[in-house]
């Protein structure tokens, strides 16, 4: 009985058949590496731009709404056009290399010469002309070097993780496999997040009191090494895994993976609006990005007030990143796959909007009534600012845990039954443009409200953000409900086709 029980637990944690190891393990490693790069970049990007000269958390909405979003559109257009002329493998190698070059230039040339290359004099003149309430706009110009790094880190998630990695996984995995393996891929990303936090914290502490450039360049060296391993692993899979007849017909698979698609980005977006199914996936992506980003900017404004220096700010965020990784890893291993198999797609898809919406509203309410937190802060021997930072950290951690553990896997599964064009161009338009549109919409709303109220502080617009977060969470939840019905119908239709039945038959070990 004990052996059977142990086998049962092993299958729950590792529901992968032996013959699938050759495909699943490299995919896990790819996800680990891509997430390790992103987690490390994320720890650094906010710390560098928020704590820069004459900067603050208010600069984040400007960057995400007015720079990252247009660049995301350009990236989507470029990817759409390039995919009509080049194989997906060629695009994979080229895009990864391009990102790594930018990161290397920033760490080893731009950052060490930031004071020389930053236009402080003209930025000061510009501030005196347009007024202090627009400091967050001038700050992007003043600190363009750190802004470049911030944008690169933001686009890594959109382009490398969502488009390149998940696009690759969706092409070589079936729905039946995804239910067993996608939570494992998410867990690999969580493990990377666990490692990234202590890694950043270690080098921040090691070079304390010295030149911060040493910390930055050491961390960037790890990023470049991880990027190199991504290229090598992808090459190995194309050469040795995709030609393995135990998984699929090599000729068909190679043709599918390297096929050049025909839809332009404009037609892809038009295709999305003509399909309620794709439109609902877009609502999921936009809703998740908008709600998380809107709450996070306010939290980071409190965090900057508590930790104004780069090293202290980075140390706190790296600790939070580690907690996210540990909590998300435990959640996805113990609950993510189990919930998908036991309660189904719909139950798992509803966890994120309910959790993020509720915790975000609570944080905004506490932020608005900050002056009333004095007695509570005195009881715990701390300050109202510390309480808000900790509550905001809890909200941020919880949001990312449910996103990584439940949202990402269910969202990616929704793409699998689609036709090849929808998988490539529809996914590119939704994940690259839709996700950025969600973040940018929250940024536009925040910047717009600050302009209307004549303030340069995001903290003064808190009460107006509560109904936005709650409303978006409800619409997100409704779209997930519709998708659940359609996904079940598509999966049943796919299972009834002869080709699908042949593909789902496991090959002998």
From TrEMBL:
Pfam families documented for this protein: TLC
UniProt keyword Oxidoreductase, yes or no: no
Sequence intervals crossing the membrane: 24-41, 61-79, 91-111, 144-169, 181-204, 216-237, 277-295, 315-335, 347-369, 375-394, 458-478
Keyword set includes Membrane: yes
Bilayer topology term: Multi-pass membrane protein
Compartment(s) of residence: Membrane
Key words of the record: ATP-binding, Membrane, Nucleotide-binding, Transmembrane, Transmembrane helix, Transport
Major subcellular site: membrane
Annotated NCBIfam families: AAA
Recorded family membership: Belongs to the ADP/ATP translocase tlc family.
Protein name (database record): ADP,ATP carrier protein
Organism of origin: Candidatus Neptunichlamydia vexilliferae
């Amino acid at each position: 009985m004990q052996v059977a029980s142990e086998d049962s637990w092993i299958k729950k944690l590792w529901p992968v058949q032996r013959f699938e190891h050759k495909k699943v393990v490299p995919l896990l490693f790819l996800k680990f590496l891509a997430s390790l790069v992103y987690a490390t970049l994320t720890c650094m990007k906010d710390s560098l731009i928020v704590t820069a000269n004459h900067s603050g958390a208010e600069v984040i909405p400007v960057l995400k709404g007015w720079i990252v979003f247009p660049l995301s559109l350009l990236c989507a257009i470029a990817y759409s056009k390039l995919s009509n002329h080049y194989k997906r493998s060629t695009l994979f190698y080229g895009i990864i290399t391009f990102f790594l070059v930018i990161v290397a230039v920033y760490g080893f040339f731009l950052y060490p010469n930031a004071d020389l290359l930053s236009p402080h004099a003209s930025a000061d003149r510009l501030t005196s002309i347009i007024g202090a309430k627009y400091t967050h706009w001038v700050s992007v110009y003043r600190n363009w070097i750190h802004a470049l790094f911030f944008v690169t880190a933001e686009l890594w998630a959109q382009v490398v993780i969502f488009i390149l990695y998940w696009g690759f996984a969706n092409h070589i995995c079936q729905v039946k496999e995804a239910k067993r393996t996608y939570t494992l891929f998410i867990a690999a990303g969580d493990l990377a997040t666990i490692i990234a936090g202590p890694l950043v914290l270690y080098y921040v502490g090691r070079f304390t009191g010295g030149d911060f450039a040493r910390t930055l360049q050491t961390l960037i060296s790890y990023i470049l090494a991880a990027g190199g391993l991504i290229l090598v692993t992808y090459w190995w899979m194309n050469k040795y895994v995709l030609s393995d007849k135990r998984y699929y017909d090599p000729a068909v698979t190679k043709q599918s993976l390297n096929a050049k698609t025909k839809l332009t980005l404009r037609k892809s977006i038009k295709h999305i609006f003509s399909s309620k199914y794709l439109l609902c996936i877009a609502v999921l992506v936009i809703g998740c990005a908008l709600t998380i980003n809107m709450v996070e900017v306010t939290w980071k404004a409190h965090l900057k007030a508590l930790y104004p220096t780069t090293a202290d700010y980075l140390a706190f965020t790296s600790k939070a990143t580690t907690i996210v990784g540990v909590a998300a890893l435990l959640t996805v291993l113990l609950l993510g796959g189990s919930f998908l198999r036991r309660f189904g797609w719909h139950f798992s898809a509803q966890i994120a909007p309910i959790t993020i919406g509720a915790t975000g509203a609570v944080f905004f309410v506490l932020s608005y009534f900050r002056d009333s937190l004095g007695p509570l802060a005195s009881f715990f021997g701390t300050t109202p600012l510390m309480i808000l930072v900790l509550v905001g950290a809890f909200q941020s951690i919880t949001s990312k845990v449910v996103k990584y553990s439940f949202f990402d896997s269910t969202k990616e599964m929704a793409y699998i039954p689609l036709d090849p064009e929808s998988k490539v161009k529809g996914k590119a338009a939704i994940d690259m443009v839709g996700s950025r549109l969600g973040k940018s919409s929250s940024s536009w709303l925040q910047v717009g409200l600050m302009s209307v109220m004549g303030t340069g502080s995001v903290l003064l617009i808190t009460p107006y953000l509560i109904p936005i977060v709650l409303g978006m969470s409800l619409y997100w939840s409704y779209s997930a409900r519709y998708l659940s019905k359609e996904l079940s119908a598509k999966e049943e239709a796919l299972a009834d086709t002869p080709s699908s039945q042949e593909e789902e038959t496991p090959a002998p070990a």
